[in-house]
Structures are given as C-alpha cells and as structure tokens.
Write a structure and sequence with these properties.
Elements lengths: L4 E9 L7 H19 L3 E8 L4 H10 L3 H10 L4 H7 L6 E4 L3 H17 L2 E11 L4 E3 L17 E10 L5 H10 L3 E2 L2 H11 L6 E2 L1 E2 L15 E2 L1 H6 L1 H4 L11 H4 L4 E5 L3 H14 L8 E4 L2 E3 L2 E2 L10 H8 L1 H11 L6 E2 L2 H31 L13 H9 L1 H10 L3 H22 L1 H4 L5 H23 L4 H11 L35 H19 L3 E2 L10 H6 L2 E11 L7 E6 L5 E6 L14 E5 L5 E3 L2 E3 L2 E2 L1 E6 L2 E6 L11 E2 L1
Parallel strand pairs: 1-2, 1-11, 2-3, 7-12, 11-12, 13-15
Antiparallel strand pairs: 4-5, 4-6, 6-8, 9-10, 13-14, 16-24, 17-18, 17-20, 17-26, 18-19, 20-23, 21-22, 24-25
Bound molecules: ligand ME8.
C-alpha cells in the first residue's frame, strides 16, 4: 500500500544576515514535525530554502562591495552559513530551494505571464510607501505613526510604473476561507487578518518594481522585476516541479499539508498566497500555522537592535539536542516566548539532566548492579505498578493528539509527566530494599523492566525532538530497531523479558549554571563587539568655515613639563606646558582614561592657545590639547597629536 504523504515547509529565509535563534526555532519546529510524521509512517516532504531577491539584498551587497549573487552565496553556502547551520542543527529537510535557482526563476516568469494573460495582473502606476527591510508596500492609511506597521521602521516614498495583481477580486473568497475553514491556525490569528486587512477593503497588490534589478525579470516587459513576495511564495510549488522539469513531486505532494510561518508573515500566507493560487486555479494548502516570535526583553530579535542570539554558540556549549529540546519545551508554539540563557540552562538541568537523564542512568545502573546487566525472565506484578503502566501505555495517544495540533510543548509535557512518575516509582518500590533478599529479586526484575519500558516508550516519542540523544538512550537500554517504532510505542512489552542494558556516559550532563552563564555572556559580548564596525570615523562636517575665521585659531607646538591627575576627577589630567613664551601654560584635558600622566612628560604636543580660559574642578585651563579620535569595534579611541621633538615650543601651526 502507498504511504500517505505529508508536505511541510518553513518560510524561505532572507540571506541578508547570518541566521539567529529565532530562525532556528521555526526550522527546528518544522523538523520535529517532519520527523514525527515520518515516525508515524508518512511519506514526508520537508522543504526549506532561501529567499534571495529584493532590494534589501541588493543594497546589502552594494554596501559590502560584492555582487548580490556573491553576497547571498556567502550567507547560504559560506562558513557558518545557512546550510552549515541546518546541518549542525540536524535538520532533515528533503529539499532546499534557492529562489535564484534557474528552474525557479523560469517557473515564476511563466506564472507571472499566466496571471497577466488571464487579466489578473495589469499595468498601472504605483504611488505609496515602501518598507525596504520588509520588502512591503503600504498605503498611507496602513502606516502606524508614519512607520512600517510590521517592523516600525521608516518607510520611503515610492512611485513607479508597475504591474498590479487583482487581490480585490479574491477578497470575498479569501475571507470565507479564513472564517469558514480551519485554514489559518491558531484560530486566534483569523480575526486580525479579516478585521485589519480584508474588511477595510483589500486593495490590488503592486507586484513589480522598476527601481532596482535584483529580482526575477518580467520576461515580457524588461525593466520590471517581479515583486519578491510573489516570487517567494511560489517556491513552495516550484520546488515540487511546478512549471519546470528540474524538480518533481507536485502531483504527489501538493497541496501542502501545512506551512509553518512566523506571525508577521501570516498576512502574506493567508491572504496573498491563497488569492494567487485561486488566480492560478491551483489547490490551496491545507493549513497555515502562524507561530510566535522568540523575543528578548520584549522586542523581536534583530541585528540592528543588537539583540540576536547566535545558535552556534548555544549548540556548541550545550549540545544540539538540548537546544532543540529547549526551544520546543519552553515556549508554546503559537505565542511569543521570552528567550533567556537562564531558561535554557534550567530546561537542561531540570528536564534533561534531573528527570530524563537520571531515570536512564539510575535504571541502567541498577540493572547492572543487581543483575549484571541482564534481567531474569521471571516476573511478579503488584498493584503499585498499575498507575505507571496505565499512564505509559496510553501516552502515545495523548502525545499524538497534541502533536497533530502542533502543540509541541504539551506533547513534551505528557512525556515528562510519565518520566516524573517513573522517578517517583523508583522511590516507591525502593529497589535497593528489594535487592537485599533473594525473594525480592523477582519483584525487583519486574520493577526494572517497567522502568526500562517507560524509558523506551518515552524515548520513541522524544526522537523527533532529540534524534541523536534518543539513539544513545536506545543503545543504553538495549532497544533494537524493531522496538523503536511508532507501533511499538503503543503498548508495554516491547523489550525482551531478558533485556540487556549497556550503561554509558550521562546523555545529558548537568550544567554548572553560574559558570555557564558567565562564559555565555562573555562569548555573546565578544560576538556583539566583533559585529560592530572595525573602524569608525566621525562624519565630515557639512558646514564650511571661511578662511579668515579659520586663521583666527592659534595652534602652537607645546612641550609637557609636568603632568598629573586632577584630585577627585577620573577624567582630568593637568598639564604644565612650555609654550615658548617663557611663562608656563596650564591646560586641563579630559583624557585620563587614555594616558598615565608620567608617560606624557617630555612629549611635544599641539594646542590651540587662544580659547578663552575656563575653570574645571576649580582650576584654570588656558587652551586645549589637540587629539585624534575614532572608534574601534564600538570603543572610543583617542590619541594626542604628537609632533617631532625637533620642533621648538611655540612654533605656530599654519
Ligand atoms: O520573512 N522568533 O524571511 P525572514 C521566531 N523571506 N521566528 C522568527 C524570529 C524570531 N525572533 N525572527 C525571524 C522572510 N523569525 C521571508 C519569508 S516565505 C515565502 C518568505 C522567522 O528570514 C520569521 O517569523 O525575515 C519568518 O517566519 C522566518 O523566520 C523567516 O524570516
């Protein structure tokens, strides 16, 4: 019999910057779902990829002094790029699409032409606002405080000849789709779409641009490139071979079972995407699930805010599986979650090290200690076993109900209730007491078997979340492949009655929270610093100074006779200077952070000497020493201007 199919996608990511933990969150969730569906027997197609066109990428490439293609190639394929990250995170995608792939470009051109020939795309003129970072057009009325309603950044005026898609024509059908079906999940997102976007009147959508060139060219009108969202959304179908013969699987996998997308792009997926598919007379995806954001102190992570968290650092410190687990255990998928290093460490220590890790290591250690690693076949059941056995035997059903609703956190909660119950069962049955007498051994073997079976069933259901670690646990409890299956998770009794365990290293070592937090914040700080520009110099003054005014400034060479810190001031140094007049000059300068007084004595410097004297900390300063200032990796640097010692004190600079 042919397997049932399941087609699941992540958004395709913009390769405009390195990806952060927020992107990883969505991809890990999709991967977990894909693995779960494979486990339950589906033929899964899991697609992810990159969305490489648009003005934002063109601008970034220009800033970096490379071509847009070079720019995206580096972020996608380069060291620690997107492909590397998905490999590190053990992402099991079946396909990867890059929108610059030629088959995609050609298919998008055909799609655009088809909608044009049908009359759903027409030529007009666009006047409005554009948010470059989001690649979104807005009308004046959609702006919030004059800024982009999605990201809150400045928008720019845009007016150009453009093609439009007749979104308005599909408004009613889209509204019915949203209100009358379970197309958009969680259902709480439906109202926002209908009330904010459809009810006020869906305007036709501008779907081409002429002011830049990094996009799919409209083949029948050179100079126009296809709006990046039109090109991007169709990736879900071109990757399956729609209107191209380089890929295949369209008939098999389309329509998608679910698109996982972040909440800010629900609008594109639940309004624009179905409308375009209606125009193309194609089947609609079965579901769009809008997940929440990982936020830091209430705000979305973004490179410009400097609050992004690097998944590489976390995965290297805590392990990939611990990170995958944390993301889905800690935050409900449909809502926002506040990321913190403390939460991550607590999930590892509480759930993984304490509850799961301990259960596995205590159980295998006891089977080794009391039975030399292999259980005897005799059993002796007791009333006390029933609660645990009942809970574990019905776990798969409760887990499945949650997984089918994409409620990863709840599914894990069901598993951990069983794990906690099993740890309590150890305390209740007190194996160390049973082990003391020969008569207790049969009962002890039963207790051990029940624990091993609990571990086995929980591990099967945890596999989509932590594939590698679950493999290690299976090896420790001696579970062969045949008893790692979905079917075998439905009932107790999978392991042989004379199961053999192989105690190994702790699968989830406990983290020393204080040490790890200190290390993490040092690493994250260093990374933040490294991301700042290596060298920054002050912008040049726009305003001109006339020559006469400039000539009024009297710059002189001065020699440092003495220099000391000013009492009660962290900033000020007091200089006694030979300025060539025969009378010492005193200047105070706020540079104590940069120099020790003794290192300046004897140096030949430059000062402006005709500034009016002023008092600082009760002392008079007659002039100002000239320094050069710049920033390195965000840090202020200052260097006093020092000149050749051969130049006599008092020499005028001109
Ligand atoms: O939107 N928490 O690309 P993108 C959770 N190219 N999810 C987050 C997140 C965070 N802090 N930050 C980003 C695009 N994401 C388009 C998609 S699909 C046809 C085109 C999620 O790289 C975000 O919500 O800006 C989105 O779902 C995904 O990462 C890609 O974001």
């Amino acid at each position: 019999m042919e397997k049932k199919t399941f087609y699941i996608t992540t958004p395709i990511y913009y390769p405009s910057d390195k990806l952060h933990i927020g992107h990883t969150y969505c991809t890990v969730a999709t991967d977990t779902m894909a693995r779960y569906k494979r486990l339950t027997g589906y033929d899964v197609c899991f697609l992810t990829g990159t969305d490489e066109y648009g003005q934002k990428i063109e601008n970034k490439a220009k800033e970096a002094g490379v071509t847009p293609q070079q720019f995206v190639d580096n972020i996608v394929e380069g060291e620690k790029g997107i492909l590397d990250l998905w490999k590190l995170m053990n992402i099991s995608n079946d396909r990867f699409i890059r929108t610059t792939d030629d088959y995609h470009v050609e298919a998008v051109q055909k799609i655009f032409r088809k909608m044009y020939e049908k009359g759903d795309i027409y030529k007009g003129s666009y006047k409005g606002k554009y948010c470059t970072p989001c690649e979104s057009f807005w009308t004046e009325s959609q702006l919030v405080d004059g800024k982009c309603p999605d990201c809150g950044r400045e928008v720019v005026d845009a007016e150009e000849e453009a093609y439009f898609f007749r979104l308005s024509k599909y408004a009613e059908r889209v509204q019915r789709l949203l209100e009358d079906t379970d197309f958009l999940q969680p259902a709480s997102r439906v109202n926002e779409m209908v009330n904010n976007f459809i009810k006020p009147g869906l305007e036709d959508l501008c779907v081409s641009r002429t002011s830049f060139t990094w996009g799919v060219p409209v083949d029948f009108d050179p100079g126009h490139v296809v709006y990046v969202w039109v090109d991007a959304l169709f990736n879900y179908t071109t990757a399956l071979g729609l209107l191209n013969d380089k890929r295949d699987g369209y008939d098999k996998y389309w329509p998608a079972d679910v698109h996982f997308v972040g909440k800010e792009i629900v609008r594109f997926h639940s309004i624009i995407w179905p409308a375009m598919l209606m125009s193309m007379e194609m089947p609609l995806p079965k579901q769009v699930y809008g997940h929440g954001w990982l936020v830091m102190d209430g705000g979305k992570m973004s490179k410009s805010k400097g609050n992004v968290v690097d998944p590489y650092i976390l995965a290297e410190m805590f392990g990939v599986d611990a990170l995958r687990f944390f993301l889905l255990r800690t935050f409900p998928f449909g809502s926002d979650g506040n990321f913190s290093n403390e939460l991550l460490i607590s999930a590892i220590n509480t759930d993984l090290a304490n509850d799961l890790g301990n259960l596995v290591s205590r159980t295998t250690a006891m089977v080794e200690k009391y039975f030399g690693g292999t259980l005897p076949a005799e059993r002796e059941a007791a009333e006390l076993d029933n609660e645990l056995l009942g809970m574990v035997a019905s776990l798969r059903e409760r887990y499945e109900a949650q997984m089918e609703k994409y409620q990863f956190q709840n599914a894990l909660e069901e598993i951990f209730k069983c794990i906690q119950r099993a740890n309590k069962y150890i305390d209740e049955t007190a194996p160390w007491v049973l082990a003391k007498s020969e008569e207790g051994k049969t009962r002890l073997a039963t207790v051990m078997y029940n624990l091993l079976e609990t571990v086995r069933i929980c591990t099967i259901l945890l596999t989509p979340f932590m594939p590698e670690s679950c493999g290690k646990i299976f090896a420790q409890i001696g579970a062969e492949e045949a008893v790692q299956t979905w079917d075998s998770a439905a009932a107790f009794g999978g392991l042989s009655a004379t199961a053999t365990v192989h105690k190994g290293d702790a699968v989830f070592p406990r983290i020393d929270a204080e040490k790890a937090l200190a290390e993490l914040s040092a690493l994250q700080e260093a990374q933040k610093k490294a991301a700042l520009p290596a060298l920054e110099i002050e912008p040049y003054a726009e305003e001109k100074v006339d020559f006469e005014t400039f000539c009024k400034s009297d710059f002189r060479v001065v020699k440092v006779k003495a220099c000391e810190n000013v009492k009660k001031s962290d900033k000020l140094l007091k200089f006694t200077l030979d300025d060539g007049t025969g009378t010492d000059r005193q200047i105070l300068s706020g540079i104590a952070k940069y120099y020790k007084p003794e290192e300046l004595v004897g140096k030949t410097l430059v000062a402006i000497v005709n500034l009016p004297p002023r008092k600082m900390m009760g002392q008079e300063s007659c002039g100002m020493l000239i320094s050069a200032v710049h920033k390195e990796q965000g840090e202020e640097k200052l260097n006093l201007l020092m000149v050749d010692d051969k130049i006599p004190a008092g020499a005028k600079l001109c």
